[in-house]
Write a structure and sequence with these properties.
16 strands; 21% strand; elongated; 16 helices; alpha+beta; eight-stranded mixed sheet; binds histidyl-adenosine monophosphate; 428 residues; five-stranded mixed sheet
């Protein structure tokens, strides 16, 4: 038997319905904020991520799916979307369009990570980026769109944490200070951090090893050493979010695992998954496009880990999705097949989910199947009934049925479904 690749998943029905519904809500709400979808390639030249995410990051140094194509070019399965958005911005001359440009993206990302709950090697992100706006207002909009989307899914326990990374110039100063403060205990840092010390010292702040965390906790937070401009920027973001009643908490050690960020960085944490399994990460990256050879175009955005989001979806959301009522159409006898197909078509066009019996089993078996499928209503089309121009509409929740004229089957079914929905809501 051939099995799926480690770290990938089959998302089966009915769970896949949750994904569809989450994505549909994301299109509605993020689209409502003006973000239109950009569909990006799943593979990019390796150099794109080396130059943006950063050579010294875990993602680039050990998590990328990199391979030569048949001509020996180094390609990488995208580990994230922001670098591709920046590349596409430059390559397609998107700077010519009215600015700022608001883009969203959906889909698979790949990272060779150790498998655990909420951590996969192929996972999906829902992201937005706003390009061409350097003001705190853009950061506020992005976080407000995020908060609005999460609230629309019914979340009320997620925590947004935020930090100020300053500008790259501040960062150099910060790193010098950090090293000076850690120096007396340098030998106690883990092996990875010893390597980070020279390659990418900021990543020491990301380390999950308890002793490293303890040592880092004693150091001066990055937000304390940033320039006045950077400080004013993030303070303004924070103030506006407070006015919008979007709760955010400062996280002085938050640095994020990608190198392109400056000033505002943020994450969303769910109490259920804990701090190491973040639901969403984002921030500002004003030098990314110019670092890739484009004009200096500022940007800010986020990406939600959809797999993780779905794992902690509120029960009410899941119930709503799973309890969608559907109808079975049950032809009895050969001559009922075409009328059943016609009725199914009419019901579908009226917005009803229909499962038509197509296996040729008996009426008794059909009703049993309808029950197993959790159908709310069954429409029985017998040959005699069809000859009389009628059908039997059976309310499966109450075991009652009525015989109605063929041309009122659809409204009768819809009325029944609505009644079922009402009684279900009352009982919740
Ligand atoms: P990131 O923090 O690397 O940021 O990833 C964003 C989110 O993707 C994470 O918070 C997490 O929910 C999800 N994620 C990451 N790795 C995995 C994994 N192995 N399994 C499941 N979920 C995962 C970025 O990717 C940036 N591009 C976000 C951004 C957009 N910043 C600005 N704009």
């Amino acid at each position: 038997m051939i099995r799926k690749v480690k770290g990938t998943r089959d998302i089966l029905p009915p769970e896949s319905r949750l994904w569809n519904e989450v994505e549909s809500r994301a299109h509605d709400i993020l689209g409502g904020f003006g973000y239109s979808e950009i569909r990006l390639p799943l593979m990019e030249p390796t150099e794109l991520f080396v130059r943006t995410v950063g050579e010294g990051t875990d993602i680039v140094s050990k998590e990328m799916y990199t391979f030569p194509d048949r001509k020996g070019r180094s390609l990488t399965l995208r580990p994230e979307g922001t670098a591709s958005v920046a590349r596409a911005f430059i390559e397609n001359g998107l700077g010519q369009r009215p600015q700022p440009l608001r883009l969203s993206y959906f889909g698979a990302m790949f990272r060779y990570e150790k498998m655990q709950r909420g951590r996969y090697r192929q996972f999906s992100q829902i992201g937005i980026e706003i390009l061409g706006a350097a003001t705190p207002a853009a950061d506020v909009e992005v976080i407000s769109a995020l908060h609005t989307f999460l609230a629309a899914l019914g979340f009320d326990d997620l925590v947004i944490v935020l930090n100020n990374l300053g500008d790259p110039e501040d960062r150099e100063r910060f790193i010098e200070g950090l090293k000076a403060e850690l120096m007396p205990n340098k030998a106690e840092l883990c092996g990875d951090c010893q390597r980070r010390w020279n390659e990418n010292p900021l990543r020491i702040l990301d380390c999950k090893v308890p002793r490293c965390r303890e040592l880092v906790a004693e150091t001066t937070p990055v937000a304390d050493v940033v320039s006045d401009e950077a400080k004013a920027h993030v303070d303004e973001v924070e103030q506006a979010l407070a006015e919008l009643e979007i709760p955010v908490r400062r996280a002085p050690r938050l640095v994020r695992g990608l190198d392109y960020y400056l000033r505002t960085v943020f994450e969303v944490i769910s109490p259920e998954l804990g701090e190491d399994t973040v639901i969403c990460g984002g921030g500002r990256y004003d030098r990314l496009i110019s670092d890739l050879g484009g004009k200096p175009v500022p940007g800010v955005g986020f990406a939600i880990g959809e797999d993780r989001l779905i794992e902690v979806l509120p029960e009410a959301f899941k119930e709503r999705v799973f309890n969608q009522r559907m109808v079975t159409v049950l032809p009895v006898g050969d001559r009922s097949m075409a009328p059943a197909a016609r009725l199914a078509r009419e019901l579908v066009l009226a917005g009803v989910e229909v499962h038509t019996e197509v296996t040729g089993r008996s009426l008794k078996a059909c009703l049993k199947w309808s029950g197993k499928m959790n159908a709310a209503v069954a429409v029985i089309l017998g040959e005699q009934e069809l000859a009389d121009g009628v059908a039997v509409v059976r309310d499966l929740r109450h075991g009652e049925q009525e015989t109605v004229k063929l041309d009122v089957v659809v409204p009768t079914v819809i009325e029944l479904l609505e009644k079922t929905a009402e009684t279900e809501t009352e009982s919740i």
